[in-house]
Amino acid sequence: MNNTYIPQFTEEEMKTVNLHISKYPKPMAAVMPLLWMIQEKYGWISLEAMKYVGDILNLPHDHVLGVATFYTMYFKKPYGKNHLQVCTNVSCMLRGGYEIFNHISGKLGIKNKEVTGDGLFSIEEVECLGSCATAPMLQLNNKEFYENLTIDNVDQLIDSLKNSK
Question: Which three-class secondary structure state does DSSP give residue 85?
C-alpha cells in the first residue's frame, strides 16, 4: 500500500489531460476526470495530487480539494487492493445489505473505511449503487459489481480475492 507519492503525469498521460481540458469551455470543468486519472494511477488522491491538479488547471487548490472531498468516489486515503463498497441504502438494507456489510467486516476484522493489516482488503458502507432490483450488492474497486448477494457468495468472493494475491 503506497502511503506517499509525488504526483506526476507522463507525457502520454498529459495528452489525455489536454484532451479532457479541450472538451470544456473552461479548464475548471476538467477537475473530475483529472482527479479520476490520479486515482486510477496511484489508487488514491493525496493533498499533493489535488494541488498538482489545481496547478495544471490554474485553479485554487481549495477548489480542487472541495471537489475531491464532496464526491465519495474519490479516495482521500489509501485503501486495500480490494476495496469492497457495500450498499446499505433502502433496497439493499431491506434485502440484507447491513448483514452483508457486518459479515464482511467481521470476517476481515475491519470496520468501515479501514484496511486489513496486509493491505489486501478495505470496506466501505456506501449509499445507492443503482442496483435496487438486484439488491443487496457491492462494488469492487469502483469497477466490478456483485448483485443478489448472500453470505455464501460473499465468502466465495473474498476467498477468491485472497487466493489471487
Answer: strand
Secondary-structure class of domain 11-70 per CATH: mainly alpha
Would you say 27 and 63 are in contact if contact means Cβ atoms under 8 Å apart?
no
Distances in whole angstroms, Cα of residue 137 to Cα of each of 81, 103, 109, 157: 19, 13, 20, 12
In 1-60, alpha helices (H)? 11-22, 31-42, 47-57
| Averages of pLDDT over each 10 residues, the chain, 165 residues | 82 97 96 96 95 97 95 90 95 96 97 95 92 95 94 96 85
- The pTM is what? 0.80
Q: Give me the residue spans of the domains in the chain.
A: 11-70, 82-163
Q: Give the CATH number of domain 82-163.
A: 3.40.30.10
